[in-house]
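Re-run with default settings, no changes from the original entry. Doing this only to confirm the output is reproducible before filing.
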Amino acid sequence: MLPHAALAADRDSVERGRAAARGILLLRDPRACGIALLRARCKSDAEQFLNGRGDADFQKVPKIGPHPASGLITFVTDGDREAFDFALQWFNNTQSTSVMWGADPRDAALYDAGIEDVFLPAAPRNGPVGVPPEILENLALVPVGDLANHVASIPSGTLPLDVAPIRAGAQGPNGVVRLPPGARAFAHDLVAALDTAVPPPPLATITYPDGAVGDARFGIVVATVMELIDSPDWLAQADAQRFVDDYLDRMRILAPDRADEIASLRPQLRGDRSYDHDAAGRANSALVGEIVKAQSARGKRIAVAMAATQMTYSASILRDQPSAGELAKVLAASDELDAIPGFQSARIAAGAVAPSDWAAHYRMGVRFVDLIMKGGSN
């Protein structure tokens, strides 16, 4: 592993690779882009995936609709899931191009490494039920195959580990790369080394001032973790795992008497091969519920912020009218966060939104989160 901070240019190459991979992951599982805290990043990743391409550029994709590009932007911007064209899942991989390798092999190698850093953690859950994880991992090793195919041109010291395990990777018949026996182990070592040498930026940076704002921000974090539980491909990512660590650290501060329960919850939120969606959701919700009940006024503030945050996910992903209507009514009647400038008028407005008006629900959720994150500042 590199003993020094990555060069700025190296970090840029890796981050562009990660963003490209998240663009593919977004097409596979768009649910995470209904999460309020991920809205800005989803917009950026979608724009990078499109790379200036419009609707007309995708018309050769099988079963594509009339608005794939503009619909994708509408989905990540406005939460309109009906605009999302699932035919875009035809794009299921990405890697450095021959032009990139010809222009700058160091950039191309680091770009591939950034892609692998996202693809590999998501691999165990992509595919039909019952398919062995090893098969799914093979599908995620395309970037490593590209590295193996160009290993001779990768400058020494480019990657934060020895490339010896993939030196045997040679181009086979018809341009197909036959991965060397050590490719899978190399991929796992690459992801671990890269996350140490060039860790991804935080999923979100949350501070907790005293009072309503701090409690409300924790409510946003709680709702975000609950929503990530629905998307283990995203939950398993390094940035999400660090977000979970911060979440549990804050939980320990608020409920030090529940340290053992918090420790037991941690492995259930890893999103790894042993991941059980229902068990993770139940365990997390039960612990949050106990903490909220025990915290009295603070717990109510946390709960109101959770409900406010969930409006975006409810409107974009779940779309259950009775639940959405009840959520809006509860918020309209809850004054626990009125100390936050603008929150009172926003919650009253939420009560007037029709349960079927998903666009308005989405905008209200975004507005609530924005008010809480700003906390009255300009």
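DSSP finds 17 helices and two strands in the chain. The longest strand covers residues 170-171.
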